[in-house]
Write a structure and sequence with these properties.
232 residues; Serine Threonine Protein Phosphatase 5, Tetratricopeptide repeat; 2 domains; 13 helices; 0% strand
């Protein structure tokens, strides 16, 4: 996924105290320049990466209010809607993105994930976007897996056996984690999300790929926070 404006990612080794300090700095800058889309973008990312999804959503919405043309490209707003539980708005945001990029299957995957929360995974699967052109590997296969056309274990083995690089393994682990979460297999979901989080490629990547590294970390924590504690 790409967007018109994407903030410089905070380092993965940065402490929450450092992120909090960055948010304070950005908030002071916004007071001086309340119409700066770039500042809202950067603070929104800092909020999102800190798990403050409602505040991230507010900053992303402000970006669109200031510069409406950003709306269809704003996949980060779609993710913020997802993690604040606004699944209908999330799905609609990814539908908007489809109008500017009809190849990127990550968009279709997140639309499915949002729809699965409201209409169930089977109906959401029936209504998945049909793509005509191939995407970058391994997203054609990831999409087939979510469509139910490719077994997840076969897919995982295919990525490994092809000796593909860290980039493809990272995306495979991330979306296998999200797939098993939808399927209700929480332990397997956590296993793959942890693998994605531990990816040296994902940790060091910039732009959209680096942003998705944070999804691996945040979604794992999201699942773990909802798992019943042993003995309960």
């Amino acid at each position: 996924m790409t967007a018109v404006i994407i903030a410089v990612l905070l380092g993965s080794d940065q402490s929450q105290a450092q992120r909090d300090a960055e948010i304070i700095r950005l908030s002071e800058e916004i007071k001086k320049a309340p119409k700066s889309v770039a500042l809202y973008s950067e603070r929104g990312d800092a909020y999102f990466q800190s798990g403050h999804f409602n505040k991230a959503e507010a900053d992303y919405r402000m970006m669109v209010e200031i510069e409406p043309k950003l709306d269809p490209t704003h996949w980060r707003l779609g993710l913020a809607y997802y993690y604040t539980g606004k699944f209908d708005l999330s799905a609609k945001q990814f539908e908007k993105y489809q109008t500017v990029d009809d190849v990127d299957r990550e968009n279709g995957l997140w639309r499915f994930l949002a729809m699965a929360q409201t209409v169930g995974k089977e109906k959401a699967r029936q209504e998945m976007i049909n793509y005509k052109n191939s995407d970058r590997p391994p997203f054609d296969d990831i999409y087939k897996m979510f469509q139910g056309k490719l077994d997840p274990d076969t897919f995982s083995q295919r990525v490994t056996s092809a000796a593909q690089g860290g980039k493809q393994r990272f995306y495979a682990d991330l979306y296998l984690g999200l797939y098993f979460d939808v399927e209700g297999q929480k332990d397997r979901a956590i296993q793959f999300l942890k693998a994605a989080e531990e990816s040296s490629w994902g940790r060091s990547a910039g732009g959209g790929p680096g942003w998705m590294w944070y999804i691996a970390r945040l979604h794992r924590r999201h699942i773990e926070s909802k798992k019943p504690k042993s003995g309960s």
